[in-house]
Amino acid sequence: MVDQVERAGQPEERHDAIEVLSHEDRRFPPPAAFAEQANVNDPAVYERAKADPEAFWAEQAENLTWFKKWDQVLDWDNAPFAKWFVGGKLNIAHNCLDRHVEAGKGNKVAFYWEGEPGDTRTITYSELLKEVCKVSNALKELDVVKGDRVVIYMPMIPELAVTLLACARIGAPHTVVFGGFSADAVRDRINDAQAEIVITADGGYRRGAPSALKPHVDEAIEGAPSIEKVLVVKRTGQDVPMTEGRDFWWDDVVGRQPEQHEPEEMDSEDLLYLLYTSGTTGKPKGIAHTTGGYMVGATYTHRAVFDIKDDDVYWCAADIGWVTGHTYICYAPLANCTTSVMYEGTPFYPEPDRWWDIIERYKVSILYCAPTAIRAHMKEGHQHATGHDLSALRLLGSVGEPINPEAWMWYHRYIGGERCPVVDTWWQTETGSIMISPLPGVTTTKPGSATFALPGIDADIVDDDGKSVPNGRAGYLVIRQPWPSMLRTLYGDPERYEETYWGKFENMYFAGDGAMRDEEGYFWLLGRVDDVMNVSGHRLSTTEIESALVSHDLVAEAAVVGQPDPLTGEAIFAFVILKNRAHPEDQAEFGKVLRDHVAKKISPIAKPKRVMFTPDLPKTRSGKIMRRLLRNIASGQTIGDTTTLADSGVVDLIQEASLSQSDDE
Ligand code: 7RM
């Protein structure tokens, strides 16, 4: 697209995919004491990895235990279908459990688990190993064999992690469906994976009440004839129907199993799991991850980015149903013999300080969570956090969306006590592990920037023609070289894999995100390119405008979308959630204040045409704003598919709010 913009009075021809509006001057070098003790503190690692990426990744692979070493690090002859550590044999559960117990670490705590009602369990590595062996044997009794797909639909209880590991141990690829998803989502995934078994629970706790899961499975199975068996964990004790001969209680089947099990010898390229992403349209995509490369990427990034030490208490406050939970609650922390906290419920139950209470009680030293959670805590106010002793924290991480500078600063100040490095980690279900992130002992951070691609990762930003854009400009984020934990294909649809990820630019993986690099080469993520708005010929990212809105002291959260407009093509429509302490007397007037704030903060062209105040926003369970639904609301269309919405009541709330608020214009 050709676009005439005036900068400093000089008309200039621009072809940018997205325009850059904001600027950030604050910077935070790694604290000297942190850098000194960090797992990675020599910046030379970037050059070393770049000079010979395969040697670099092979070096990382040496940290896993292989039954048989690989013959070849990378086979890229059949690009974009990669094979890593070709010929290598290993078992992931063996790497996560047996080898630590054999090394004398059996008594180390693997998980401090806490249920939402306040019940707790402490599970050591040797206890976890025994439980995983029993479940592996139970699956065998239920006729699950190597290669069979297992669908998992559970709350955040230890049995969920145990089930993943048992599947990995016997070589049965798992596919986890978020506990919050509907029966439709479960059915679609069972059918695509052609699974014969579902592992679920009677229910789980959310916001103080038991919420049933098993009935959703029953409903899903009505349209999923491949299912022969259902294994059910008793969590809430609520009454659920059980079908004789098909449904089995976990305690009955697992309870009678022996505590020993020989792990299956898996090929490095054997399927480890499928994880479905909804995609913007059409049927869900089964992202396929294999064994060796995935584990190499997961364990290296976990050690390097989170600076994991033997005495850390690490908490990734995600759901295992999200890729973040797969990689950074289950596989990587266990492979690195980390002690983790795992929490079942919602952040604000029973009180808004639940998280900070958990951090104080378990002396959490590393916290990894999503910007949406950080903003929700900001909305409640920092007094809930500062009332607790958070002094054990030494590192903070963020994932899932661009973290706006205001939220970054809040996180750094009130949670990190201004002493903890903040790592903003960019990655995707497809990438398997973190791709762009600071190394906390090396990188000077800037609030809102994911900084640089990790060692061994070749990220770039290109224009519509696939040419690298210079620093200071925005474009499409791409990865130019294969990496160990990359997705291998879309399950059952290799053509769609090639077309979706490798079809837009030749020999490059296109992530679907917009990004820019500033004058110093720092990466700034700008959201999905599908969400870019075209206002009077200006291509604007949602991210910068949302950040400008959130930088207002009374705004907790904002989402902007394009609304069809006869004059400008699209007009900016902003949905705004105010902080609890904000009570504007005149909403229309305050909307105008916010519109002017954006104009002043970044640019008059980014000024929203309309601001609507809303109590909530439609989000996925990983906290991503579903802008597609908001676009439909803004343009008065029907809402469309809401299967992956965390809370379906939200859409009604927003529609009610939209009826009660008149146009600001
Ligand atoms: C880990 C995860 C992937 C999409 C990705 C981005 C967005 C994730 C960041 C981010 C800006 C970040 N996997 N995203 N992390 N955007 N900064 N640090 O979220 O498959 O569920 O989503 O999430 O758009 O493409 S995911």
Map the helices and strands.
Blueprint: E1 3-7, E2 10-14, H1 32-37, H2 44-51, H3 53-61, E3 72-75, E4 83-86, E5 89-90, H4 92-105, E6 109-114, E7 120-124, H5 125-141, E8 150-153, H6 158-170, E9 174-176, H7 183-193, E10 197-201, E11 203-206, E12 209-212, H8 214-221, E13 229-233, E14 247-249, H9 250-255, E15 266-267, E16 271-277, E17 285-290, H10 292-305, E18 313-316, H11 323-335, E19 339-343, H12 354-362, E20 366-369, H13 371-380, H14 383-386, E21 395-399, H15 405-415, E22 422-425, E23 459-462, E24 474-479, E25 489-490, H16 494-502, E26 509-517, E27 523-528, E28 533-535, E29 538-540, H17 542-550, E30 555-565, E31 569-578, H18 587-601, E32 610-613, H19 627-634, H20 649-660
Parallel strand pairs: 6-19, 8-9, 8-10, 9-16, 10-13, 13-14, 18-19, 18-20, 20-21, 21-22, 31-32
Antiparallel strand pairs: 1-2, 3-4, 5-15, 6-7, 11-12, 16-17, 17-25, 23-24, 24-26, 26-27, 28-29, 30-31
The structure holds 5'-O-(acetylsulfamoyl)adenosine.
5'-O-(acetylsulfamoyl)adenosine binds next to α11, β22, β26 and β27.
